[in-house]
Design goal:
By secondary structure, the chain is of the alpha+beta class. The chain has 3 helices and 6 strands. A 4-stranded antiparallel beta sheet has the order 4-5-1-6, with helices on both faces.
């Protein structure tokens, strides 16, 4: 099938004309494909992550090593989705680099700005890769085509009150699992 712009288009859910590389706080939710519950279970209001869920947490904690312009805040992995808050704090100027083994790097260049989409995309890519290894090496359940849904939900956090609201929401998400719209039986 060839590309037809009249039928092959997606409406963006992002804020029009907003710079998603600007410093600030962002609330993000990403769901597994078909909302498959593959990261653990909720037991008595507490998320008990399985090996796959712990892997997702590990990738989250390692993101600042890849993106120096971000800081982690609140995070929860749920059976079929994750919620997190991250801060973009800006990309530093790359200083003069020395020539190493005949390779030169341009001095004084600024890397392309890191966006929320860059970080979410890397998070999804790294977790998908590691989950795929877990399927083949450790017998984790396979996933239906993709590990994550194609898009994600994001909210620009505008003030301290919103930041507190989203932190509370994330921390208490396991308590409310059976009321959560991502809970598989809530759709019936």
């Amino acid at each position: 099938m060839t590309y037809n712009p009249d039928i092959h288009h997606r409406r963006s859910i992002r804020l029009r004309n907003f710079d998603y590389s600007s410093a600030g706080a962002y609330f993000v939710t990403a769901c597994t494909q078909e909302r498959a519950c593959i990261f653990g279970d909720i037991v008595d209001g507490v998320m008990v992550a399985n090996d796959a869920g712990r892997m997702v947490e590990s990738v989250w904690h390692g993101l600042p090593e890849r993106f120096s312009g971000m800081e982690l805040d609140t995070f929860v992995v749920m059976p079929n989705h994750v919620h997190f808050i991250m801060f973009l704090v800006g990309a530093p100027l790359v200083g003069a680099l020395t020539s190493t083994e005949g390779r030169n790097s341009r001095a004084g260049t600024r890397p392309a700005p890191t966006t929320v989409g860059d970080i979410v995309g890397a998070f999804k890519s790294m977790t998908t890769h590691k989950y795929t290894l877990g399927v083949s090496v450790s017998g984790w359940p396979s996933f239906p085509g993709r590990l994550w849904q194609r898009n994600y939900y994001e909210r620009v956090i505008r003030n301290e009150a919103e930041l507190d609201k989203f932190r509370t929401y994330i921390l208490h998400n396991p308590d409310r699992w059976f009321e959560d719209e991502e809970y598989p039986l809530s759709k019936t």
